[in-house]
């Protein structure tokens, strides 16, 4: 097994460390707030949709004539639309479904960051082509089973821009909601479609707050929000997701980290003294012993902030500030993306105004309260289906940390996931590629041989998971 510094875009959050994964091979007006549960409608995935409005035609992208893309990706639509006011405009790329399957589904995708472009997902993960050393067709593009909408937000990330101050994820959600209202005026054929909000990494915040906002204002949006999919998300306290599971993860993957025995002994002692060892042993159980449970002591010192001496993530990341065996996709795709989206012909093809600023992958972060304890449970309760998937080899956001958050969470009148043993996740042609647990409309999936960006590392698995979310498959496993 090789150690690769791959599959991560800029994650400018509380601290910046080298991020590693392990791989083997018209304008919306303000309206009064209304609360209601989401409207669920029967599946109608064979209903054909076409986009022929004069407004939509202005955004048409010729899929046979994209610069450097030597194959036809089909018609798509892109450009800039206002959010909740003219002061903020967001760039979007809308990729219609290729077949009748999923014609009545609209999958909204966002990357994380916070403040990173969703074009990262569109061109590295689940879009119709992949931008790398060479441009390749993606046989597992998500628009094979659904209409897919990529939106760059919050402004000023990517081509998006605005003067409205964004203070937190509620502001982000409000802007996205206004954008979606305007989007449907351009593409009225999508009105009353099933909406699925998906995203990755810090999108754990974006997706959750956006879904909650939609559920609270459902009568003001002509879409039926059905569910969400989070991939390797940040959702809870940093100490649970970034500190408690560090030692166990490193110990489980010795060939990848290859730390000296003296360093491992030092790490083990800190793991014990900070209370991480006992905490993980006591609370990472299925079903959970009880909930809610507090944060580990003495590491948090009752404040929720990690004591300096207990910052194991920083301790482990420091020796890994190097590329050990291979050049990772992001490190060469990142600069390529910047060059690609700043080409004059690409910008013209995507209807970017000449006055628009230079494209950048990420902008400044805006943080809110972790959504796991109150917002996310409510989103699950008011959704038809909720899915969370984690790459088993993601060290940037460690799977066991997310499981601790879930086991300390209450939804549907119970605490955590209760299924003692997970069910194997089987994928045709690949065999067993993970495992999953389902409880009270929520499914947690572990994906083998994947790091922080599952749709890039295991695209076939990711597409299968999406189809489960959409209700096209009865189970994540086939």
From TrEMBL:
| EC nos | 3.4.16.-
Q: What is this protein called?
A: Carboxypeptidase
Q: Which GO terms describe its biological process?
A: proteolysis
Q: Pfam families from the xrefs? A: Peptidase_S10
For this protein, the record's PANTHER family field holds:
CARBOXYPEPTIDASE, SERINE PROTEASE FAMILY S10 SERINE CARBOXYPEPTIDASE
Q: What's the domain of life for this entry?
A: Eukaryota
Which InterPro entries has this protein been placed in? AB_hydrolase_fold (IPR029058), Peptidase_S10 (IPR001563), Ser_caboxypep_ser_AS (IPR018202)
Q: Where is the signal peptide?
A: 1-30
Q: What is the protein's species of origin? A: Cronartium quercuum f. sp. fusiforme G11
């Amino acid at each position: 097994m090789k150690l690769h510094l791959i599959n991560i875009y800029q994650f400018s959050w509380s601290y910046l460390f080298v991020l590693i994964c392990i791989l083997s091979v018209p304008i919306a007006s303000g309206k009064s707030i209304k609360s209601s549960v989401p409207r669920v409608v029967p599946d109608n995935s064979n209903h054909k949709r076409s986009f022929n409005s004069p407004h939509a035609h202005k955004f048409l992208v010729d899929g046979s004539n994209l610069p450097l893309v030597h194959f036809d990706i089909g018609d798509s639509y892109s450009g800039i639309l206002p959010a909740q006011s003219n002061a903020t405009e967001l760039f979007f790329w809308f990729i219609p479904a290729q077949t009748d399957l999923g014609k009545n589904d609209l999958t909204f995708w966002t990357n994380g960051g916070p403040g990173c472009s969703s074009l990262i997902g569109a061109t590295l993960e689940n879009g119709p082509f992949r931008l790398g050393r060479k441009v390749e067709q993606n046989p597992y593009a998500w628009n094979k089973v659904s209409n897919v909408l990529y939106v760059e937000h919050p402004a000023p990330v990517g081509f998006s821009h605005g003067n409205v101050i964004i203070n937190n994820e509620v502001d982000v959600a409000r802007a996205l909601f206004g954008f979606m209202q305007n989007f449907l005026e351009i593409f009225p054929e999508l009105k009353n479609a099933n909406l699925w909000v998906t995203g990755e990494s810090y999108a754990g915040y974006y997706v959750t707050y956006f879904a909650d906002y939609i559920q609270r204002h459902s009568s003001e949006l002509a879409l039926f929000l059905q569910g969400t999919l989070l991939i390797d998300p940040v959702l809870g306290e940093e100490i649970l997701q970034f500190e408690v599971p560090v030692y166990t993860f490193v110990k489980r993957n010795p060939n990848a980290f290859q730390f000296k025995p003296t360093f491992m002994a030092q790490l083990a002692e800190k793991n014990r003294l900070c209370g991480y060892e006992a905490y993980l042993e006591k609370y990472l159980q299925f079903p959970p012993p009880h909930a809610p449970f507090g944060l580990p002591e003495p590491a948090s010192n009752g404040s929720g902030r990690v004591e300096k001496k207990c910052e194991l993530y920083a301790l482990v990341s420091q020796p890994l500030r190097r590329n050990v065996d291979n050049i990772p996709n992001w490190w060469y795709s990142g600069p390529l993306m910047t060059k690609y989206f700043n080409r004059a012909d690409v910008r013209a093809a995507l209807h970017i105004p000449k006055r628009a600023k230079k494209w950048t992958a990420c902008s400044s972060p805006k943080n809110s309260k972790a959504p796991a304890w109150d917002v996310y449970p409510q989103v699950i309760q008011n959704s038809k289906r909720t899915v969370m998937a984690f790459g088993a080899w993601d060290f940037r956001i460690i799977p066991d940390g997310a499981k601790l958050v879930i086991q300390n969470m209450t939804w549907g009148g119970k605490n955590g996931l209760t299924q003692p043993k997970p069910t194997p996740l089987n994928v045709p042609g690949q065999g067993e590629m993970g495992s999953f647990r389902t409880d009270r409309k929520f499914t947690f999936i572990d994906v083998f041989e994947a790091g922080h960006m599952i749709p890039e590392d295991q695209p076939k698995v990711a597409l299968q998971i999406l189809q489960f979310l959409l209700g096209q498959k009865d189970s994540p496993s086939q």
